[in-house]
Write a structure and sequence with these properties.
Elements: E1 13-18, E2 35-36, E3 39-40, H1 41-50, E4 56-59, E5 73-75, H2 85-98, E6 103-108, H3 118-129, E7 133-140, E8 143-154, H4 158-166, H5 172-178, E9 182-185, H6 200-210
Parallel strand pairs: 1-4, 1-6, 4-5, 7-9
Antiparallel strand pairs: 2-3, 6-8, 7-8
Helix pairs in contact: 2-4
Length: 213
């Protein structure tokens, strides 16, 4: 897989790979451990993000020992009950609070082709507009499509996020829009960089795509 050689972004940003779901559409397995090419999806995701950030953690529930072969710290949801990716974002924020980070950058664990300039573009957009949240987006048939698991989030929003989750909110974009989230457009000329893997056919498509990288 070819990666753009970029300078790493501000060390105040913590990278959080979201893998807290139950993967029902793939039989309940850890999708990130599936292989495309010579590496697992999670290994590719970690490598791409490590080119952009110094510190990365993995948000995953269940037995953390199943990731013991990876050199990455694993944190579970701080809110129990598998309430969705907002819980993973909150968990990343709480970890960041305790470890001196001011923002977190989240990526999904089942999206191996995300941009190598994700961090720089989101952080530059946030700084320019003084935004507390910036979300990645692409265009499909001239329609804007946001990818809310790929976002830059200010840790200052942690208490508000927890309050909203406890009140029953589950959709990322609904909470993000409460805070005037900035939308950052990424090109998708040859392929969708936020293509994610939920089915066997999508896994096969990813295996074909990896050969072109």
């Amino acid at each position: 897989m070819k990666l753009i050689n970029l300078e790493k972004s501000d060390v105040s940003i913590l990278g959080v790979i979201l893998a807290g779901g139950q993967a029902r559409r793939m039989g309940g397995i850890d999708k990130g451990r599936l292989k495309i090419g010579d590496a697992s999806i999670l290994e590719i995701t970690t490598k791409t993000l490590s080119f952009q950030l110094d510190k990365i953690i993995l948000n995953a529930n269940g037995d953390q020992g199943r990731f013991s072969d990876l050199e990455i710290q694993v944190i579970p949801d701080t809110i129990k009950g598998y309430v969705g990716p907002l819980a993973g974002i909150l968990s990343g924020m709480r970890f960041a609070e305790k470890n001196g980070f001011t923002s977190i950058l989240t990526v999904a664990s089942d999206t191996p082709f995300f941009p190598a300039d994700l961090v720089s573009k989101l952080s530059n957009a946030s700084a320019k507009d003084d935004a507390l949240i910036s979300l990645a987006a692409t265009k499909k048939n001239d329609k804007l499509v946001r990818h809310p698991t790929f976002g830059l989030w200010s840790v200052s929003l942690a208490d508000d996020l927890e309050k909203n989750i406890q009140a029953g909110l589950r959709k990322i974009v609904l909470w993000a829009d409460k805070h005037s989230a900035k939308t950052v457009l990424f090109p998708s000329v040859e392929y969708d960089p936020f293509f994610n893997i939920n089915t066997q056919s999508e896994l096969e498509e990813a295996q074909r795509r990896i050969k072109a990288f």
